[in-house]
Amino acid sequence: MPLPEPLVRLVEELQRLPGIGAKSAQRLAFHILKTPREETDRLADAVREVKERVTYCSVCNNITESDPCVYCRSDVRDQRVICVVEEPQNVSAVEKTREFKGVYHVLMGALSPLQGIGPDDLKIKSLLARIDNGVAEVILATNPTVEGEATAIYLARLLKPLGVRVTRIAMGVPVGSDLEYTDEITMQKAIEGRREV
Amino acid sequence: MPLPEPLVRLVEELQRLPGIGAKSAQRLAFHILKTPREETDRLADAVREVKERVTYCSVCNNITESDPCVYCRSDVRDQRVICVVEEPQNVSAVEKTREFKGVYHVLMGALSPLQGIGPDDLKIKSLLARIDNGVAEVILATNPTVEGEATAIYLARLLKPLGVRVTRIAMGVPVGSDLEYTDEITMQKAIEGRREV
Which of A93, B34, B90, B107 is the most interior residue, by most CB within 10 Å? Predict the structure, then answer.
């Protein structure tokens, strides 16, 4: 005799989430069954509310509760420097440094011919539309992966003719790591990117 | 500048789920943000509905949409043989064999002094209450772990004086495995439990 239908449905919905397979989905569903009602209601409400209250900034595509986002409407951020990232969560990674005082542009992905993601699937047009005489520099902070690198090269070709300074974040050995365990491509990038001391 | 508050709340709620850490919770939350509204509504509804429609059988504690559950109210199942398992999901594991035709009793856990789970935290009293002259056999199918084994031994001591046949599922080498990779305790159980051929 099969599992109750609402439980089967919950397992199916959980399985759609990234990194959750059939076994994890079943484990989570049984956990939810065991959990007090208030707590599971909070989870269901949180899912609904995040969709209701959080949207994307119409300028930079970062996630925000109000449009434009805090960065785009800020007086203290340098609106002349745009840091380009792949996903909204990458904005947090840059913010954590407390070093960057410019604004952002979220591409919502990276070029990936294998996954059928081309330039028109990314927020590239709206990036180009933001480049005017006021913009001094575009920092390409796409991921240090094949896709991120290809996207950075593609964007650099489009941006340079517009007369803006285009830079790419440095790739090299991560701070605190051990050279012994550094892969050869990272090591190669570290040597390529060496600087005078 | 921090993440929007509804997103932070969703991350917190997701992190309460078993096996979901801070990083996974954030990844899931951003995925939910990106997912179309219909799909995330289906997830939220599934969570609510499972709590509304699925309850525990008042006889055997298995999950069910109607009380008593399909096994306990069945005419074709042998109500004289009770298979004792730790969790509702273990019922599915036994059912998959299509061999067992008796009924179940779900303990809702196993004895674990380390986690502070004693006999009163498990559905042991209701198991003992089910044992009458009609019951021919109790099969102890708790997990082959330290906790499951301790629970089985504890239950056997309580059940045997009631004049019922008490059995324990066999432990040994799993079918399709390789002796080379069998751990020593499993191998020991396999030898202890050897049978005439």
Answer: B107
